[in-house]
């Protein structure tokens, strides 16, 4: 970890970031990344960030980052959201696979994959979820059988975020079924697969709001080099848990995103004529307090981490809090918009589509559904509560069948 920085250094970095964003953030919001044209524009933006040196400011300099440390990384995120910059699309690579490679990857793997994912020349997606597995990730059935210097992969992954646009997938596969029968967490391997390989079929999924940001991925006799294994063969569960820890935990600075959401909700409520409505103001105040609590927690965890503290026990707690808070924000918005809550799909197809307030409500409706999904992906909140009760609080374990 880099040395702690002074307040002056943080504010100098903040001013640098603010000036760069003011010059480079697109004047108009980019189209949704859930369609190819919008995705390609988001990818162009990611390359602009990389060229400016802002793709992963928190990464170590040896891997192409800025070695910014936590306080400057938080300042970057706060300025990024404040500037209304585009949504990031390579989070699977930057915040999941990248850190995993730094922890478990070989020097050759890091040199092969990290530069391209940092520059967004390669988009990665996560292949963990499978049909019928529910929250029991270790029950996965995708198989990888050794054949010389390759694995032959057969199976299916589902609910793959950005799967329809990704170039590569990092997936959990079962390489030793016998070990899995004795202890289901054994015999699992973390394997990186080129989605352009023969035998891979990607089918985009249309969601309830009409978007196609997810996909299901099928593998039929897909040959994958053994050198694509991250960590040890048959011992991928530890790698998977590290990946989920990055996914569930606090992304330092993401509190600014939720604060922006509340500010956006306040503007929409005002546009609807409810600026002086006491009930509406009470609702806004309630979700504002939640975002301030979360912001204070992010700063607390940053200070703990800089002091060398262990944050392993916080991942599940954070996941429960931020996903419930996000849901509450968008649920509040949906209730306050009342009949406008029926707005779904493409706002351009609706009467009055030029009205920016109407477009904003449509986007709010879409994000409401995604906020509900956040309480499921990365391990359901019910499972996270079990983890907190058993591993953090030391309460008796839930009976297992």
TrEMBL record:
Every copy of the Acyl-CoA dehydrogenase/oxidase C-terminal domain together lies at: 234-393
* The protein, known as: Alkylation response protein AidB-like acyl-CoA dehydrogenase
**Gene Ontology molecular functions:** flavin adenine dinucleotide binding; oxidoreductase activity, acting on the CH-CH group of donors
**Record-annotated Acyl-CoA dehydrogenase/oxidase N-terminal domain positions:** 9-119
- Give the UniProt keywords, A-Z: FAD, Flavoprotein, Oxidoreductase
Necessary cofactors: FAD
Family note = Belongs to the acyl-CoA dehydrogenase family.
A Pfam family matched in the record:
Acyl-CoA_dh_M
> What are the annotated GO cellular component locations?
plasma membrane
Residue ranges of domain Acyl-CoA oxidase/dehydrogenase middle in the record: 125-222
Source organism: Nocardioides soli
Give the taxonomic lineage as stored in the record: Bacteria, Bacillati, Actinomycetota, Actinomycetes, Propionibacteriales
């Amino acid at each position: 970890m880099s040395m702690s920085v002074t307040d002056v250094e943080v504010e100098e970095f903040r001013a640098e970031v603010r000036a760069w964003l003011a010059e480079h953030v697109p004047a108009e919001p980019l189209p949704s990344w859930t369609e190819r044209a919008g995705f390609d524009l988001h990818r162009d933006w990611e390359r602009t960030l990389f060229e400016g040196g802002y793709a992963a400011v928190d990464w170590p300099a040896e891997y192409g980052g800025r070695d910014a440390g936590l306080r400057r990384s938080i300042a970057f995120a706060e300025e990024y959201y404040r500037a209304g910059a585009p949504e990031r699309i390579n989070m699977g690579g930057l915040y999941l696979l990248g850190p995993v490679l730094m922890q478990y990857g070989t020097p050759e793997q890091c040199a092969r994959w990290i530069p391209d994912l940092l520059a967004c020349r390669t988009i990665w997606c996560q292949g963990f979820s499978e049909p019928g597995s529910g929250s029991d990730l270790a029950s996965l059935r995708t198989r990888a059988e050794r054949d010389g210097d390759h694995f032959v992969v057969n199976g299916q992954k589902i609910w793959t975020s950005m799967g329809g646009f990704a170039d590569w997938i990092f997936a959990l596969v079962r390489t030793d079924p016998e070990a899995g029968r004795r202890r289901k967490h054994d015999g699992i391997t973390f394997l990186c697969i080129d989605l352009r390989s023969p035998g891979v079929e990607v089918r985009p999924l249309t969601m309830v709001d009409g978007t196609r940001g997810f996909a299901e991925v099928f593998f039929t006799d897909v040959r994958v080099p053994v050198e694509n294994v991250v960590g040890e063969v048959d011992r991928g569960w530890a790698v998977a848990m590290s990946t989920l820890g990055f996914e569930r935990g606090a992304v330092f600075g993401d509190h600014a995103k939720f604060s922006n959401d509340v500010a956006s909700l306040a503007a929409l409520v005002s546009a609807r004529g409810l600026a002086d409505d006491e009930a509406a103001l009470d609702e806004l105040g309630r979700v504002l307090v939640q975002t301030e609590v979360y912001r204070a927690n992010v700063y607390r965890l940053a200070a703990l981490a800089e002091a060398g503290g262990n944050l392993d026990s916080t991942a599940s707690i954070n996941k429960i809090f931020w996903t419930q808070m996000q849901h509450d924000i968008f649920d509040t918005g949906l209730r306050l918009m009342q009949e406008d809550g029926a707005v779904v799909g493409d706002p351009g197809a609706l009467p009055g589509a030029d009205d920016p307030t109407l477009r904003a409500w449509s986007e709010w409706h879409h994000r409401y559904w995604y906020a509900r999904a956040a309480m499921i992906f990365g391990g359901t909140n019910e499972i996270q509560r079990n983890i907190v009760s058993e591993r953090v609080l030391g309460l008796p374990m839930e009976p297992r069948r």
